[in-house]
């Protein structure tokens, strides 16, 4: 099932495919490096590798990957942008520009982060 991770001890390093490419795409979750090989996402830690399969390779279809494998990122961004637009409209009527910008940014970040963490928890619960 996509999302399930397999732990591979570092002693078995030979399993690492030569064709796997180091990448910045994906959440590192404390890993030293990340690799991708097709739909495989491999995270390297001090003592192990964690490997899981994504439904869609983000190098091939970034939006499809967000929708199917990382909806929490997409929902967090959407909520942050939506909150920013609404906040900008409300604050621009009543406050100075500096206070408005600070309020818009802080409310957008909080809203986006709250949506991201909530969606991530729901996704984990449903897996």
Account of the protein in words:
The chain has two domains: 54 residues, no CATH class; 57 residues. The N and C termini lie close together (9 Å). The model has no long low-confidence stretch (mean pLDDT 85). Helix 1 crosses helix 2 and helix 2 packs antiparallel against helix 3. The protein is elongated. By secondary structure, it is of the alpha+beta class. Strands 1-5-4-3-2 form a five-stranded antiparallel sheet, with no helix packed on it.
Write the layout of secondary structure elements.
Layout: E1 6-9, E2 21-22, E3 33-37, E4 40-44, E5 48-53, H1 62-68, H2 71-94, H3 97-126
Antiparallel strand pairs: 1-5, 2-3, 3-4, 4-5
Helix pairs in contact: 1-2, 2-3
Count of DSSP helices? Answer: 3
| End-to-end separation | 9 Å
Q: Would you count the extended β strands for me?
A: 5
Q: What would you call the shape? A: elongated
Approximate strand percentage: 15-25%
Sheet with the most strands? 5 strands, antiparallel
Low-pLDDT sequence parts: none
Query: How many domains is the backbone divided into?
Result: 2
SSE string, helices as H and strands as E = EEEEEHHH
Q: Which strand order does the major sheet show?
A: 1-5-4-3-2
Global Rg: 19 Å
Helix content: 40-55%
Mean pLDDT: 85
Structural class: alpha+beta
Short description:
With 127 residues, this protein is an alpha+beta fold. It contains 3 helices and 5 strands; from the N terminus they run βββββααα.
């Amino acid at each position: 099932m996509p999302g399930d991770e397999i732990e591979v001890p570092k002693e078995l390093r030979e399993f690492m495919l030569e064709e796997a490419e180091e990448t910045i795409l994906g959440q590192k979750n404390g890993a030293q490096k990340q690799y991708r090989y097709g739909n495989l996402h491999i995270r390297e830690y001090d003592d192990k590798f964690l490997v899981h399969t994504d439904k869609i390779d983000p190098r091939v279809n970034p939006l499809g990957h967000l929708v199917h494998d990382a909806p929490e990122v997409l929902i967090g961004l959407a909520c942050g942008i939506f909150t920013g637009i609404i906040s900008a409209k409300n604050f621009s009527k009543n406050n100075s520009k500096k206070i408005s910008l600070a309020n818009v940014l802080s409310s957008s970040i909080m809203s986006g982060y709250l949506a991201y963490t909530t969606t991530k928890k729901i996704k984990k619960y449903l897996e």
